[in-house]
């Protein structure tokens, strides 16, 4: 029997619909059997577990509060004696009283006074007559309005202090000294420290640049008169007389950035660490009257592979210790007679001078000979 075209168009949508119903029913049956099988597997696994006593389990299981409580009791108890215990065998004492971070500190030559510069705009001078004492007397110096102390340096006397500060106009130097007292006042105020008095002030000592470091020492080398010399370091280095604030001279490292500048303890040398890996050293020449005559660049210490971040002189002013970013520290002997020549095995210095130590660096021979060995 042949179907007409009209009947064919009628049965086609019905066939598609019937196929869709059969497919959906098959999928539903598949998921139903799958979920039933998984449920049976879970029940079988639970049935195989041993029976548990829930009451005993709850009793034996510690609660969260109990755990926290036990942890709190497990911490060691800190007694009053433990609080006063030293953190290190060499830890002698702790100086308290600062309201913010300490930015600089400086001892007197005898070690009996310590000056600190603090970010709370206060300079404190601690009297360390007994370093193991529980309390210390200290002199409080409040800086002028708008000035923030960044460095301090003692003059020859412990009663005089030079302070380097930052303010809106740039950098300034202040010299404070203990106020003079009458004999009657000294008898009545023996227990109190004398009040500081501003003796001199220098504004814009490095134009509008800030002070990086400040070091002071007593000039005792050669014909020096023993007065205090203070070196302030910024983009340039300047020397000042500590007692009266007189400007003595300036040095330029010809670098984009200086890290620090220090004075030798006898007041003979000024050494500066800058952006490069070398250290430049100047000598302060004194006149017959003891005053500073001129400042001459005398040597340049080369050998580090990266910038020098810190340096200091030994107490005898004969050596310089340097620390660099290259991870090395070096000791330089500067108390000598220096000659240089190109690297040549027939250098005349090797035959004429035979009393020193030979050092090779930077493709040059640096021959050191102590002055006392040269007649």
Output the structural class.
alpha+beta
Low-confidence runs of at least 5 consecutive residues: 54-60, 64-78, 337-375
Order of helices and strands: HHHHEEEEEEEHEEEEEEEEEEEEEHEE
Rg, Å, rounded: 40 Å
Residue share in β-strands: 35-45%
Strand order of the largest sheet: 1-2-3-4
Helix content: 10-25%
Which outline best applies? elongated
Instruction: Calculate the mean pLDDT score and round it.
Output: 76
Tally the beta strands.
Answer: 22
Q: Give the N-to-C terminal Cα separation.
A: 142 Å
Major sheet: 4 strands, antiparallel
Characterization of the model:
- Strands 1-2-3-4 form a 4-stranded antiparallel β-sheet, with no helix packed on it.
- It is built from 6 helices and 22 strands.
- By secondary structure, the chain is of the alpha+beta class.
- The protein is elongated and about 125 Å long.
- Helices cover 21% and strands 38% of the residues.
Give the topology.
Blueprint: H1 5-48, H2 54-60, H3 64-74, H4 80-83, E1 102-107, E2 113-118, E3 122-127, E4 138-142, E5 148-154, E6 160-167, E7 170-178, H5 183-188, E8 196-203, E9 213-218, E10 228-233, E11 237-241, E12 247-251, E13 258-263, E14 269-274, E15 279-286, E16 292-301, E17 308-313, E18 319-324, E19 329-333, E20 337-342, H6 348-352, E21 357-361, E22 364-369
Salient structural properties:
alpha+beta; 38% strand; 6 helices; four-stranded antiparallel beta sheet; 375 residues; disordered C terminus
Short description:
The chain has 375 residues and is α+β, with helices and mostly antiparallel strands. Helices cover 21% and strands 38% of the residues.
């Amino acid at each position: 029997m042949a179907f007409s075209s009209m009947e064919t168009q009628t049965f086609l949508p019905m066939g598609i619909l019937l196929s869709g119903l059969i497919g959906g029913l098959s999928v539903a049956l598949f998921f139903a059997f799958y979920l039933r099988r998984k449920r049976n597997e879970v029940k079988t696994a639970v049935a195989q577990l041993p029976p548990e006593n829930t009451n005993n389990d709850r009793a034996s299981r510690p609660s969260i509060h109990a755990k926290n409580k036990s942890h709190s009791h497990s911490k060691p108890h800190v007694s009053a004696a433990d609080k006063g215990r030293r953190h290190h065998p060499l830890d002698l004492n702790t100086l308290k009283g600062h309201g913010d971070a300490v930015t600089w500190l400086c001892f007197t030559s005898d070690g009996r006074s310590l000056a600190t510069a603090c970010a709370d705009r206060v300079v404190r001078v601690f009297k360390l007559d007994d370093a193991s004492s529980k309390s210390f007397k200290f002199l409080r110096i409040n800086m002028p309005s708008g000035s923030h102390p960044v460095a301090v340096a003692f003059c020859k006397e412990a009663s005089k202090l030079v302070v380097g500060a930052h303010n809106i106009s740039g950098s300034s130097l202040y010299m404070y000294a203990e106020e003079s007292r009458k004999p009657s006042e000294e008898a009545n105020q023996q227990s109190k420290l004398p009040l500081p008095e501003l003796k001199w002030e220098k504004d814009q000592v490095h134009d509008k640049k800030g002070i990086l470091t400040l070091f002071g020492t007593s000039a005792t080398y050669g014909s020096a008169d023993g007065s205090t010399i203070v070196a302030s370091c910024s983009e340039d280095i300047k020397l000042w007389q500590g007692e009266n604030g007189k400007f003595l001279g300036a040095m330029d490292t010809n670098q984009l950035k200086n890290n620090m500048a220090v004075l030798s303890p006898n007041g003979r040398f000024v050494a500066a660490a800058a952006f490069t890996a070398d250290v430049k050293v100047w000598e302060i020449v004194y006149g017959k009257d003891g005053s500073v005559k001129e400042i001459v660049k005398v040597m340049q210490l080369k050998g580090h592979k990266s910038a020098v971040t810190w340096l200091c002189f030994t107490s005898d002013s004969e050596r310089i210790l340097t620390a660099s970013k290259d991870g090395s520290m070096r000791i330089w002997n500067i108390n000598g007679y220096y000659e240089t020549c190109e690297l040549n095995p027939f250098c005349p210095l090797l035959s004429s001078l035979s009393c020193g130590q030979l050092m090779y660096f930077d493709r040059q021979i640096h021959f050191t000979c102590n002055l006392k060995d040269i007649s």
